Amino acid sequence: MAELKTEQGARASHFPEHGPINEEGKEVLLSIKNIDITFGKGDSAVKAVTNASFDIYKGETFSLVGESGSGKTTIGRAVIRVNPLSAGEIQYKGVRISGKIPHSLDREVIRNVQMVFQDPAASLNERATVDYIVSEGLYNFHLFENEADRVQKVENMINEVGLLPEHLTRYPHEFSGGQRQRIGIARAMVMEPELVVADEPISALDVSIRAQVLNLMKKFQREKGLTYLFIAHDLSVVRFISDRIGVIYKGRIVEVADAEELFNFPLHPYTHSLISAIPIPDPLLEKNKVLYTYDPSIHDYSEDKPEFVNIGHDHWVYGNKKEIEEYKALREKGVPVQAVTIADGPIEPEDTKSLEEELTDADEAFLKAPVHDTGSIWYAVLSFFLPLLGLIGGLIFRHYHHFRNYKACMKGTVIGFITLGVILAIFLLLLILVVV
């Protein structure tokens, strides 16, 4: 039956209204089936993705996580038909969209699958106004009745992403990074897509702006029923936004599960290492944290070949028969796996004591000095021109233990008084010469 659907999908020129329904009654919007992606040819060929498979259900956020260079973005670009496949296929609503497809179907892919890019500066045309950037898809697919309707759609979308209509006449370089990303989101959402591929949309933004952009994306998902393929490497963010998570290592999917399932039962050692690398806000705990490092050599796949297997609870793990049995036994215990280990015992008091012993008198004086005791040169300059005021200021600084400021004032005051004395002496000498 699956082969029949694939053959029908290969001949289809339009998408059906709904995708296929799986055994759990969920609509499968996007299906990645055993895909390989290779760059180059011959001896210089590099396989970026190997036998990757997963499904994305309608209305969910599926996150693909892994370290840099693992193949996350490569898969995302394959979904929007930028990267060709060397094996396998990608289906959207049960219709194959990888490889050569009819022109009408290609346009439907562009219309229904949009992408939000990682770098908001590089993904926007610097020579175009925001109005044209957001309207470009509307122009290409003529998704408006008249000019007034186009303007209304663009203004509504700009308002929804938290910008103002007057921003439409400006250029991308006039905006901050967070505002540029909002423009990129508006450009994608104005097409009213069903699937959005978000390629690390917050990694180039400040921490304070990240939450705003994530909340904006969740808002669109609630209101428009969007489905996200969210590509990221920050697991703490992924846990917040995801329904299901796929972990990829060197182009191979090693684990797929619901978000909480994955964090409670990280079975594959690579997933374990990613979760252990999440920083702990408490500096004392972070200092005592034992970082788990993944070593691929622990796997022996020379005879017992690995497979991607569902071990129950909709939890898929990559491993050979022996490893799968171990994973199943660990999962069936129902005891959450402790991915983060904290070394026993607090920081030893001797450490603090040895640090204090190493401090010199000068270091201690520096640490005890008030924050604003900078000894600025401007205190010396002001005291030079107004030595009496500098003398008073110096005495005040000394009273409040601002010794650097006191020395600066005294230095300027002494030089100022000496200079005044020299000028007064010269003046008296000249006066005597005139009188005589």
Tell me the layout of helices and strands.
Layout: H1 2-11, E1 28-39, E2 46-57, E3 61-65, H2 72-79, E4 87-92, E5 95-96, H3 103-112, E6 113-116, H4 130-141, H5 147-160, H6 177-189, E7 195-199, H7 207-224, E8 227-232, H8 235-241, E9 244-249, E10 252-258, H9 259-264, H10 269-276, H11 283-288, E11 289-290, E12 307-310, E13 316-319, H12 321-333, E14 341-342, H13 349-358, H14 361-368, H15 377-385, H16 387-399, H17 403-435
Number of domains: 2
Q: Biggest β-sheet, characterized?
A: 8 strands, mixed
- Overall spatial form: elongated
With strands numbered from the N-terminus, the spatial order across the biggest sheet is 6-7-8-3-9-10-13-12
Total count of helical runs of at least 4 residues: 17
Low-confidence stretches: 1-10, 349-356
CATH topology of the largest domain: Rossmann fold
- Report mean pLDDT, rounded to a whole number: 87
Q: State Rg.
A: 33 Å
Strand content: 15-25%
Derived structural class: alpha/beta
CATH superfamily of the largest domain: P-loop containing nucleotide triphosphate hydrolases
The assigned CATH architecture of the largest domain is 3-Layer(aba) Sandwich
> What is the share of helical residues?
40-55%
CATH class of the largest domain: Alpha Beta
Alpha-carbon distance between the termini?
125 Å
List keywords for this structure.
single chain; 436 residues; alpha/beta; Rossmann fold; 2 domains; 8-stranded mixed β-sheet; 4-stranded antiparallel β-sheet; elongated; disordered N terminus
